[in-house]
Fold this protein.
Amino acid sequence: MGLFVVLPIAALLAFGLGGAENSVIVFGPLVTFALPALTMVAFWWEDWPGSSLRPAWSALVDTLLIVVAGVALAVIAQAIVGRFDASGIFDPTPGPGDTPLFPSALPLGLPAFTAMLMLTLVWEGWPLKRLHRLPAGIAALALSWGVALAVYYLAYDLPTPSGSGLISQSGPYSGEDIASLLALIGSWQVWIFLVWRGWPLHGLQQRWLRIILGNLLVLGGAALTYVIVYGAAGLEQPIIVAAAASFNSGGLVIGLLFEGAFRSRLSLPWERVATFFSAVLIGALIFVTLLAYAETLTWSTANAEAWVGHVCVNSLGLAVILHVAVCHRWPLDDKTANLEEAEAEASTRSS
């Protein structure tokens, strides 16, 4: 039932601005900058301020807050990469001298979201969650942006044409290099901490050990995967980003939207096998279907792989997190509670 809530939201963000290309150009950056705020509201603020309201109003208030925060952060990013220009934010075909968000501001938005997920999932919120939830969330958002700024100024090599209104950056790595690595880091985060719910780290008693090993596992696994798929297999970087984003969407569907689907039916080892291969299968189907469709379109500013990544993470991923973690499956919350009670009762009887 959750798919009937999630898919219309994803379709709106994928096509809602007059087609695929216009949507990825305008919605892509805006949603990218909204994702850290979404993470803050869902996992740091525990759905405040909506948590104090009725479910319908809670979903509306939290969503509006995330939208406003995403636009505000996009404006800040635009001022950093060039200058404030409203047409560069909301116009899919900005004119000469404008400062378009796509793709110039993505080198700030992508590392900010990746860092926010690292703080939330891998670092378990430590040490910021010692604070009250409101300052802790703001501090996490600020820290993730600090990491993004460091990556932007120290790592990116971003030449810009003269007269574009953008500020060039000189660094050791291209935007495609870093985007590929960030997408793979996201895949390892989703795999270990959402699909497998922290296994094999959750059994460790010492938090410091879990954090160290978690960072090594996620960052080292992403680096090794990049070496294999790019260096050895020779896949092009846009394909790597699109494939990783597709796996991420499959992992979010299995880990969040279909939460608990295997736990009451399979023993623990087989549950992990089932969840992982289900995420891979769903991700592969999404990747093949979306890419085949995107390659039938004509692209001028964006490209097929960028749109696939936008649909998987910014459209479907945002819709899943918003529906499950922020809105608590509203308006299906009563049905979800009944299903969970039935599963618990069946599990008790089988035991």
The radius of gyration is 20 Å. The CA atoms of residues 184 and 222 lie 5 Å apart. The longest strand covers residues 156-157.
